[in-house]
Amino acid sequence: MDRIAADSYVLVYRDRRRRWLVRPKDTPKLHTHLGILDVSALVGQEFGATVTTTLGDELIILEPTIEDLVMKLARSTQVIYPKDLGLIMVKLGVHAGSRVIETGTGSGATTALMAYLVQPTGMVYTYDFNPEFQDVARKNIERLGLSKFVTFKVGDSRLGFDEGGFDAGVLDVGDPWEVVQSMKKALRPSAPMAAITPTTNQAEKLVAKLKEEGFVAVETLEILLRHLEARVGMTRPSNIMVGHTAYLTFGRTTRSPPAPS
Ligand SMILES: C[S@@+](CC[C@H](N)C(=O)[O-])C[C@H]1O[C@@H](n2cnc3c(N)ncnc32)[C@H](O)[C@@H]1O
Fold first, then answer.
1. Which residues are near ligand 1 (CB < 6 Å)?
2. How many structural domains does the chain have?
3. Lesser CB count within 10 Å: N end or C end of the chain?
4. What pLDDT, on a 0 to 100 scale, did the predictor assign at position 255?
5. What's 149's DSSP letter?
């Protein structure tokens, strides 16, 4: 197993809510309400160790997963949450070598996950019309070492994309129905796309447009995630639950019918 280096990301874990993502070179000492942890002393150690803070609290040193990394990215916008990202990636079949088109980039959370999945031979093309948001996303992707798998483009996706023949698409903008035609042109026939809308009326409008543009297998759904407090003999649902994140709409492109002669 790789040993922790000065530039390794390390997940300092106490429980689901108390966890910190740090790098020894950026945060030699981690100050928490549980005491101070000497992060620089972790260099050369293996992941999985239990360490003690200055107040005597025990923390576990874990190797971060892509979920840990994505959820700790700097945020300039709302991001798509792992519970939704998981199904989106399955529905889109994003895999090593996929070419994916995404708009908008936002904070790059979705971009990061897709870049991770398409490596080493695939590419994520991601468009945003706000260069400031894209700068935040670019830095996030750089920090994760995934820049080779992302092409950033500043542009209004309502006006179309410069590239085509994509295997899958992700649409996360305020007015997705305005971008459906651009997506249709950019995706190869039969390719799946996913769109994210915070409200049902946006989903309705989007679905109408997808059907008008010949998309098939159109479906809208919401994922409700409830944690359980699992303890022998006393397991019950957690008191706290995220009530709503987004509605997810999926669809697949078809070949346009031949123009009448
Ligand atoms: C909610 S954020 C996307 C978050 C992203 N999915 C993530 O997980 O980090 C929406 C983004 O869409 C961008 N946007 C909205 N309309 C757009 C358009 N027509 N063309 C390009 N980008 C657009 C906004 O600037 C914003 O950054």
1. 77-80, 103-110, 127-130, 133, 156-158, 172-174
2. 2
3. C
4. 83
5. G
